[in-house]
Amino acid sequence: MSNPPSSPPSVPNKIVPASIPIRRQSIRHSIDFTSPTHPVSHRQPHLSPSKSSHAPSKPYFSATHYTIIRILCSSSVLSRGDLEAWKKLLCKEKLPVPYSTQDAYDLEMATVGLAIELAANNVRTENFNVLLLHLLSQLRQLLQLGDIDQIPTSAYNALFLVRVFSKHFAGNLSGEELKRQYEGPSATPATESATTTSQSAAKSGIASVSDMILDMEKLKIDPQTEQDPRPKGEQLLHYLIAIILQLDSHANYSTHEFYLEALNTIIVLLSTQLHQSTSDRTEYNYFINILMTKFGHQAKPIVFKLLHNFMEQKAPPPSSSNVVYNAYSYFFSGKTNVASSADAFPVADRSLLLLLLLSTQFKDGFGERHETEGDTTDEQNLQWASAYRQAIAEISGDQEPVIGSQNEKDVKYVSSGSISFRRLYTIFAGSLAIEERTLLFYLFLVENESFRVYVLSRSDPETIYIPILKLVYESIEGKTNYSQLYIFLIFILIFSQDDIFNESIQKFNVTNLTWFTERPLVKNVTLGGLTMLVLLRAVQVNLTSHKDAYLHTNCMASIANMSNSMMDIHPYVAQRIVSVFELISKRYQKIASRVADNNALLQQQPSQEIIVYQDLIALFFEIMNSILVHHLKDNPQLVYALLLKREAFAVYRLNARLSELVANLEAIINYFHARVSEANLRAPSTSEVLEIIDLATRTWTPDRLKSFPELKFQYAEELDSQQFFCPYVWALVHRRTFIYWNDEKAHILDEYRLQQQEQDGGSANDIA
């Protein structure tokens, strides 16, 4: 046989390219990664206010809070010895929590001007650095307490303020400027009172819980925090990760609120990536670099804990002061039903987004080795992103249910790395329309072999497979949400790689599919047949409207994988196989004729469009051959469909690449056409012809056909897959969190939006 159908560039034959909607030839990927010509260390930090037509509905802060925050951001030094001022800022009154998108916008408008002042003044006043010291001290002391009934107001307020100002810094300052805001031009000098406090605290030994809480309320800066040689950014991430791993997020509403704020803060610290034009410019991502080089060894516990939070699906604990939020969440939590279902569980939802951010970064570290004074980064730490993928891969299944377990079992769950695959599967099956859950399902299918085997071995494939097919069908028909559509097609391709699964869906009948509007008369079809119909429809619509080569390549790869197991094909499925082939064939002939007229050198320089259609035609021939070579006697409907369109294949007899495939089909067509002619029926009905075909199969011998290598395609994720996943995940963060993100500054989403536009209308690099 001639060469098999080719794949897109850089992908080996018979290996399906990763379904990542990125055009490698697109000019937008030609980005200069060199360092800026002019140093940024001496530029005055500058933040620009967000442009928006909305106006704050009300003052966000109380008059007391606003006054002291203004002092914090002003050119006045708020010394840490001024405990009354710091207590007024951090202890007197809890800062308001944003419960809605309007609240988030009001908070943005209330603080953007303050952040501009703080960024400009902090180099001299170091007020933000003192605030950071208070936060680090509060976090350290909080972790030493163990179980706690109520988070001190000082701890929450310090975390909230650092998160709010860090969000502005991340969106407006360069990486070097951001670093200087956290680390300062030099170590913050300790005042005499602070030194005395440090010495007395050091002499006191291990303090009691009540003493530690009192110290937190007195805003004593922990001496060990000041003496810690690590950068303040690294300390902050260390304590935030420890909070995520150790704090019970649902012990009460106070811990829930604080835990959620810790998740928000980590997301905000990573958001420097959101404000860049591409995902792989890591030299400007201060906190992402710290995570890569310092916290790779904690990937497993972080993944387990975030996954545990997601699987618990717990609503916020009740709070008498939170009645308004509970009512708001119930009626208005999100713009759509999908968003509402995700926002009903804030910790679960935010944990999932953070898990996706951590797991969809670079597959091979972040490129060059970064060395700091006295420290050479460990190779293991450079594999930070891979460590998160590996942590997902190593999670094992456990028969114990996760939801409803006791606290001691929860600890065992996190430390052992085992989860209930049944529970996880149930969550996915019931919420595939939620995009972030779709992405997590993708990560588990691709990375975790045990979970993949569990999914493929279930006796009820329809519970998750039919929803996937439905979403593919509706996405194709609606011409929307192509990023999620690509993920669904990868699911089908991964499923189709399993021969036993392919056989099982050929025996499973489905009925009453109201969403399948293409042929309402199809009331009873196998799950395998339904898959063929949906994928064929996707190929047809794609070639007509979207013209995305990756999409139809993946569809055809899945059909090819299924072809060896196709038996008792439904009449409409057989008809569609042949009719879609005929449609593609006619278009190919038309394009080939047009190109030949305009280009005498066609044979030497075939166009990309011609190659795409040639590959599709070759795949169709291979698929039909595969079905009939393996199961001709079990597929009379396909034989009948070939007889009806037998003239469509003759044009390819002399094609060097296709001649052997065509010879097989014509051998089948000629044999059964001769049997029908011998019956000498004037106007035979469909049932009569099928009866003749059925009788003729008894004398058919398989040695009449030439055998070809088995069709088998495998999904392989590309090494630069983060160029698709990072913008996609940030797009979800952008619209799923109660944090205001300025569209004009979310530059990584420019590429994401461009991808969506191209997939809606086609692009120059797609087939025309």
What is the gist of this entry?
By secondary structure, the protein is an all-alpha fold. It is 60% helix and 3% strand.
Description:
The protein has 768 residues and is an all-alpha fold. Among the domains are: 15-22 and 476-715, no CATH class; 61-95 and 100-198 and 207-270, no CATH class. Strands 1-9 form a two-stranded parallel ribbon.
Comma- or semicolon-separated keywords:
768 residues; mainly alpha; two-stranded parallel ribbon; two-stranded antiparallel sheet; 3% strand; disordered N terminus
Share of helical residues? 55-70%
- Cα(first) to Cα(last) distance is 29 Å
Individual helix count = 34
Cα Rg: 31 Å
Strand content: under 5%
Mean pLDDT: 80
Strand order of the largest sheet: 1-9
Low-confidence stretches: 1-46, 48-56, 187-206, 322-342, 365-378, 400-415, 762-768
| Structural class assignment | mainly alpha
Note the quaternary state here. single chain
Choose one word for the global shape: elongated
Largest sheet: 2 strands, parallel
Number of strands: 9
Organism: Umbelopsis ramanniana AG
Family: Belongs to the dymeclin family.
Pfam families: Dymeclin
Protein name: Dymeclin
